[in-house]
Amino acid sequence: MQSPWDYPDFDDHEVVHFVTDRNTGLKAIIALHSTALGPAAGGCRFWHYDEPADAMRDVLRLSRGMSYKNAMAGLPLGGGKAVILADKQRTKTPELIAAFGKAVDRLGGSYITAEDVGMSVADLVEVSKHTRHVAGLPAAEGAVGGDPGPHTAYGVFLGVKAAVRHALGKDSLDGLHIAIQGAGSVASGLARLAAKEGARLSIADIDEGRVRSLADEVNGTVVSPDQILTLEADVLSPCALGAILTEESIGALRVPVVAGAANNQLATPQDGDRIAARGILYAPDYVINAGGIINVSSEHLGDADEVGVKARIEQIPGRLESIWQESKATGRNPAEVADAMAQRLIGRG
Ligand code: NAD
């Protein structure tokens, strides 16, 4: 049998909790990658995995990702993540969610949970009845967290501006052509801010109604989802899916800058080198898209005023610039540099 310490994605995680509750059928894994900077914070994913090993891989990877993301966002938080192993029908009962809340509570604040794929804000409210170690509750529950989308969008907008300044030497998006993949929550916030500054927008989404109404609002052009990655533009902003930057898609890019919100944009670590080899400036995803976590965590950290959140988000461009500077100085690609910086911040460099 393979030793857990030899799991490919095991990265000296501090603690990995396996949770079972016979009464409700709850099976969950809660992984705390690092608490060097504070309690391990990260969402809970409710998902059906074909094999428990897949859940293990997910939780190990995602919790490490949260360590890096929280550290690079300048937050006094470590990185953790939970996965609930759902059945095939993804049956979710209030009792099961309550059992998860109690499991989080037993960890005494070393792990702070939040929303992730398969978990709704309503589920979080249920969780919050059993533990106070939860972030991202709706305002009505006494928190100011609310929807992270607009905050993420603001950070991505500032990050796009920083990239344009670095790569093209321009201080404004006025007259620049930005190709946006996605017309969802973050993409629409970004589109509105960029349009206000005079950018010309091309937008693609598989949801035709959504993309049409966003394009109408920002005076943009609708592009087919097949074409958005190969459009000639000043910036490509991936705001839909992960793993879109592959050997093939990178080879076909016709932009000097890739800067967007989607998580895990690089399909493999080698794609960080491929994009750099093409002379394209890449904004590491978990650095540029940190506005949401900055907002979501603020109420938990007790500095939930809008001014403080905005000020933290406004540090994103400076962080990106220091990554690009170090990348230039060392010849390592920006994604690699960001990981190394995060590792230093959590004392593992
Ligand atoms: P969303 O669900 O509101 O929007 C995503 C959009 O992408 C949807 O409109 C969907 O139809 C579209 N889409 C899916 N497949 C597509 C394809 N092949 N081509 C074009 N469009 C496609 O999601 P969101 O909250 O705007 O998040 C967008 C991305 O940013 C996600 O990858 C998410 O993980 C990441 N992210 C979001 C936040 C946040 O605060 N919401 C924070 C950090 C990272």
UniProtKB/TrEMBL annotation:
The keyword ATP-binding does not apply. One of its GO terms (biological process) is amino acid metabolic process. One of its GO terms (molecular function) is oxidoreductase activity, acting on the CH-NH2 group of donors, NAD or NADP as acceptor. NAD(+) binds at residues 182-187. Residues 146-349 form the Glutamate/phenylalanine/leucine/valine/L-tryptophan dehydrogenase C-terminal domain. The keyword Oxidoreductase applies. InterPro entries: Aminoacid_DH-like_N_sf, Glu/Leu/Phe/Val/Trp_DH, Glu/Leu/Phe/Val/Trp_DH_C, Glu/Leu/Phe/Val/Trp_DH_dimer, Glu/Phe/Leu/Val/Trp_DH_bac/arc, NAD(P)-bd_dom_sf. Keywords: NAD, Nucleotide-binding, Oxidoreductase. The active site is at residue 81. Signal peptide: none annotated. Belongs to the Glu/Leu/Phe/Val dehydrogenases family. PANTHER family: LEUCINE DEHYDROGENASE (PTHR42722), VALINE DEHYDROGENASE (PTHR42722:SF1). This is Amino acid dehydrogenase. It comes from Allosphingosinicella humi.
